[in-house]
Amino acid sequence: MLFVGEVRRFATSFESTRQDIGRHVALLVTAQHHNPKTLWGMHDFRSENVSARLLIVPDRARLPATDDLKRLLGCKNFDDRDQPAVNDQSTFAYWVTACHVRTVEVPGTGMTVSYASSLRPFALAAYTRLLIDLLGFSIVVAIGIAINLWLKRRLDRSLDTWDNMLSHFGEPGLKPQRPMPFAEFQRPVSLFIEKNNSFTEALAERDAISKAIAKLKQGIDLILVADISYDVAAGVLRFVSLDRETGRQTIAISVHDADQQSFTNICAQSEAIVELRVKDRPPTDWFLAVLRDNQGYGRWSGGCFLRLRQAKVAEDMMMHQARLTDLGGMASALSHELRQPLFTIALAAENGLMQLEAHDHPAGPDVARKLRRIEEQVGRARAIIDRISRYGRIDSGDGEPFELVEAVTAATNFMRPLLVAQDVRLRIGSALPTPVLATMPRVALEQIIVNAIQNSLDAIASRREHGPARSSADRIDILVAEGDGGIDISVHDSGIGLGKDAAHAAFDPFFTTKAAGKGTGLGLYISRQIMLEVGGSVTIRDGERGGAVLTVRLPETILRRRKAEIGHAA
């Protein structure tokens, strides 16, 4: 643009050159008008250290013919104000090939003369100066282009490496590929690989913990406690109960006289398990206390109590409750350890998106889509961690009111990895005219839905063992609809269905039709106990088109229906 602007200003800048030529001709005529023979013909003209040839004749008619004049002065165009301009005076080619032609009257001599001069030397000199002025700028531009190409090539390599890393996100044992062209990118890549491997290991451990926690749910009378202290002199045990219905309560019980010595013997132990009875209660009512983290003589930071029906049960359940406390601590520690690397991964993905937005690259949309997938998966991992933490906590009271369909959807999201892994489709439907709120422990309802989906997946897997390995009809349908005296949540699967005696014994504790090691037989039993506590029910039957249908009925006493809002689609 600078070059073109200078060219367009040439017509104005040559005005001074044309005036210099006219003054030079006037001086020659004034000096030599007494001797015209020396005046007419070719003369040398010099301006701004540039020499040019000048032809002077008495009148315009005596100028050579056009073609002869062009050959004499080396011209192709004529800059003659006496005739209409027929050439583009804003181009370089015009001034290099133009001749200056004028007819002037010289004052004091009474003579009128015509002259012609080539402008080529002046145009070449002017453009030479212009090119010299632009040389520095051209060098800077060339260097900038070279640096841009160099950076683009290295950035392309960096993006290819990132794309390769992202395509293997979530795979265990991820290893670094070729080194990053930019050293600043090497550390995020190494950190991404490290955290990816840690994350996949954590997911595997999470699955193991989830299975262990599901088995430990069989402790129906389990009560978690904190701030435990035992008064040896008075034989009184004080603790804070963490019951989900009553909330945190400080309780004091008097230990049976026959069991006080057992408590006295464990007061200095960091971890202890002891059986006890309570005064003023039947002597057959035994309790098992699991105490953890001794804070001083006769004081512990936490533990749990389990009501036993017989001493034999206490011996069998002792180690299981200790494992519950261990796994609670493991779940808490796992949640803490996973949050930081997940934050780092999310931050790296966000920074990657910012870098892509700052550079226009053909692979940018694909990389951006994968980075957004990382953010989605990180959010999903955080939700899983929160859910595990929620399963490790005890809800206080009846719980806060929650939207029923949203809670069912949240429970299905928890099982989505298994649904995807086993290629089973899941569909959630609602026939409710308006949103419905339920007041009960939300985690308890989600636990029932999760257990129902797990049983459906196992039933579909059993059907596949006796039939086609895969089928497009493999699905689980969940419907939330109005029922008789409440709201029904129905879970219908395409599995193998119920056995001959399964419909009657399905809710008995420890009853299972699964292979050894694949179930505890407590899932449906615990689900029924949860619903009985809120006045509801759980039933199971064979489906009309195969499979099984599990129906959870929530009573009207825990439901509240919202009024339909204007413009809200039912």
Give a verbal description of the structure.
The structure is a single chain. The protein is of the alpha+beta class and 570 residues long. Among the domains are: 2-118, no CATH class; 217-309; 398-570, 2-Layer Sandwich (Heat Shock Protein 90), CATH 3.30.565. It is 47% helix and 23% strand. The protein contains 14 helices and 19 strands. The protein has helices at 2-8, 10-32, 36-39, 66-73, 92-96, 120-167, 183-216, 260-266, 311-358, 364-392, 404-421, 442-465, 502-505, 523-533; strands at residues 41-47, 50-57, 77-79, 98-106, 111-118, 222-231, 236-243, 247-254, 272-276, 286-296, 299-308, 402-403, 425-430, 436-438, 475-483, 486-493, 537-542, 548-555, 559-561. The strands form 4 sheets. A 6-stranded antiparallel beta sheet has the order 8-7-6-11-10-9, with helices on both faces. A hairpin with a 2-residue loop joins strand 10 (286-296) and strand 11 (299-308). Helix 7 packs antiparallel against helix 9 (311-358). The radius of gyration is 47 Å and the shape is elongated. The relative contact order is 0.06. The model is unreliable at 310-325 and 565-570 (pLDDT under 50). This is histidine kinase. It is an enzyme of class 2 (transferase).
The percentage of residues in β strands lies in 15-25%
Distance linking N and C termini: 64 Å
**Which architecture of the domain at 398-570 does the CATH hierarchy give at level 2?**
2-Layer Sandwich
Structural class: alpha+beta
Major sheet, described briefly?
6 strands, antiparallel
**Looking across the biggest beta sheet, what order are the strands in?**
8-7-6-11-10-9
The Cα radius of gyration reads 47 Å
List how many beta strands DSSP finds.
Answer: 19
> How many helix segments?
14
Poorly predicted tracts of residues: 310-325, 565-570
CATH class of the domain at 398-570: Alpha Beta
How much is the average pLDDT? 76
CATH topology description of the domain at 398-570: Heat Shock Protein 90
Full CATH superfamily name of the domain at 398-570: Histidine kinase-like ATPase, C-terminal domain
What shape does the CA trace take? Answer: elongated
| Helicity level | 40-55%
